[in-house]
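Progress report, Aim 2. The chain analyzed during this reporting quarter is listed below.
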Amino acid sequence: MLKRTFKAFQYPDFRTMWIGACTSSIGTWMQTVAQSWLVYEISGSSRLLGLDAFLGQIPIMLLSLVGGVVADRVERRHILIASQVVQLSCAFALTALVAWHTVQVWHILTLSFVVGLAQAFGGPAYQALIPTLVKNEDLSNAIALNSIQFNLARIIGPVLGGLALAKLGAAWCFGLNGLSYIAVIVTLFLVRSPYKPAAAKETMIESMNQGIRFIRERPSMVALIGLAFLLTALGIPVVTFLPVFVKTIFAQGPNTYTLLLSVSGAGSVVGALLVASFGHSRHKGLITLINIFLLGVFVGCFSLSQTLWLSCVFLFFGSMALVSVFALISSLVQLIATDQMRGRVMSVYNVAFRGGMPVGNYVSGEMIERVTAPPVIAANGVLLVLTACYFYLVQKKVAKL
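Predicted structure tokens for the chain:
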């Protein structure tokens, strides 16, 4: 059982990438803790908190298709190195602004947008690179383990970030995140992918059209991509607006915010481990829809809870369901895609998956300004339950995978 759960670690290149990515993800979550708290502390506005998340994600929605074409034409490691350097530079710029006590909200919003630009190209390249490091039969396991590194970082990062924020200040969180990108850059120089891009014979627009046509010819993939958008638009705001719940519902500070982020990360790790242990289990589509239904229930319960320990329970199981769905949908899309089309397919998936975040965060932020957080997040939970029911009862392509 244990050997099957961690099977992808038998591949040295995958293991190297995993370590580097985990280190960087810890740094990213340290910055996320400090940045969300800093925006809300400076502005006192949930609208600006949602706008910060929106600006960090909207470039991915606008440019991922271009990034996917580039990922199929250029050495993917080179794209990733360039992306990491840009993000490293933004982290150090924010470190300097906070250390010099000159930081303003517009600085943070601008740097979030630049980081989003870098991720618009780095995301498709990374997602296309990972499957080339393992055999096809171990792809689902590798994707689940990749989810584990990200969500393990969601436990470690917020704890370290909360301690650094409370004891040392926000500048340390941003500076340590900048240093963490170096780990990824080093691993990218060590890894060798067997995929070599072929010389492009068509224009970039023609390449994009090929990728879109490939997806449209596979109805189940269209359904998965639509589901990914709805999932992130409705599921992610509960994490984005945790600072609002901490301050307005529990009347607490950074330590409680860190606790909730850590609980969410712990649930996510458990969810990813469960998916990794499934291996080639059948009925992944049905399992995905069941998890979306449960996610909606737990999100709704969390939004209405006014007891901290009970909220932690709901957040744990909700995060467990959320990451299980992420890993399952991603593995299903990757299994349908061919290696020659993977960059373009994953770029379209990225547009949906990552594009749902800014839309959901911005709309939720606007609504929270008007009617407070609990009813808005509760409504998201109800919509998730309805989404699962629709894809099971009406749009049945996912349930049959």
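The chain has a mean pLDDT of 85. The chain has one domain: 2-190+204-393. These observations will guide the mutagenesis work planned for the next reporting period.
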